[in-house]
Hints:
heterodimer; A: 10 strands; B: globular
Amino acid sequence: MVAxxxxxxxxxxxxxxxFLGKVKLEIETNEILAIIGPANSGKTTFLKTLNRMHDLNxxxxxxxxxxxxxxDIFREIDVLTLRKxxxxxxxxxxxxxxxxxxxxxxxxxxxxxxxxxQLDEIVERCLKDSYLWEEVKDRLNTxxxxxxxxxxxRLCISRTLAVDPEVILYDEPCSGLDxxxxxxxxxxxxxLKQKYTQVLVTNNTKQAARISDRTAFFLMGELIEIxxxxxxxxxxGDKRTDDYIAGRFG
Amino acid sequence: MxxxxxxxxxxxxxxxxxxxxxxxxxxxxxxxxFNGYSxxxxxxxxxxxxxxxxxxxxFPAIIGTVYLILGTMLFSLPLGVLAAIYLTEYATENWLTxxxxxAIVNLAGVxxxxxxxxxxxxxxxxxxxxxxxxxxxxxxxxxxxxxxxTASREALMAVPKSFREVSYSLGASRWQTVWxxxxxxxxxxxxxxxxxxxxxxxGETAPILFTVAxxxxxxxxxxxxxxxxxxxxxxxxxxxxxxxxxxxTQYGTILVLILIVFVMNISAxxxxxxxxxxxxx
Lengths: 250, 281
């Protein structure tokens, strides 16, 4: 396996206070990596570093390196290109205040695709990939806010797929969803595995166990351990991982 | 006195004060309508003044005010919105932006006669536009800018931060995010604020006094370098500068100006309600 993303001694600070310390981690091509850990463990901070969403925060500073396909994302890749290659799905469903169709085509239009037939094709393909097509194909021009929470989140996944990324980051994508919607999102992730590298931050350890290939456990801004999900959940190498998974804290 | 009695007294006191506040406005309106409605006729509105303004209509003054409103909008809307976009979306918090913010607040507090004299000095004399629609519009535009900037900034800041994050996360640049996500959702607030600013400009006398308003000019302007009559100044002239103008002509002119301002304010409120109903978030 080739490392798609490689973090080397990554440290992240906000207002000089350390939020992430010396994280060394590789994410392999086409895997689903789950990142688990209690609140304030730095898992979302780590995730948002991967597509430089922290750039918008003036208090952010960092040390160490992050590589995407062996290119330094802070020094060798333009930030707009990076975010197109490493796209993100947020915790809450955040449709833009426009129609379903315009939500999906937002990214492609930003990146210069104007051809209507091409956009139509993207909409259909991406909505099918997130299992939403059948539910919305007759009302693509209605406002995205009329959809249910679960549908909105799958729309957000479609919108992310539409920029044709290589890596998809999920920041607790199912935290606001009911079990059926969650199952649909997870189904989508399993199928998307064939084409994309996926990183999933989740508070739901069962979800990590269900769909991820490997799991990383973060605690207090440190990576405690990373390994195949089956091993992490049966024979964790660190007592703190065991305690967290068993629900003794967090 | 128990709590219930106290509560009643305070309630009636506040109700009485509220009525007192509304009362002058209502009385002014009623007096103007009562004395002015008989002057209103197609002839009064659509013909030029005659006999040294003692007879005829006020058409040139209405047209002049409309031109000034449009001219003011032409200059102040793009400038104000661009300034607001810069301050809200681009500028970082530092001493320069703080100075700009203080300047905007203070600009809103400058007396209108000062704007008038500033316009006279800069546009009429230094830039040699003469007393003209151009000079008057520019002067009114500067006066209106703080209102438009403040309203636009509030409208831009009301657009949720999460929309911007989503846009950035898909690889959009700052300008693409402003243009495609932020601005479309701020336009209702910007329009409302602009109309309110313009309606105030429409009624101002001091800024146009030296920069555009003509005492008596019974014809329509041919270019932006012409002087025009304007309703606020015309009202001043009719009330104090020309003897023996029929009272109903004076009240009728005031009524026309108030109706223009009133229609603008009502449409601002209506647009705000309309967009709020259509708002998707």
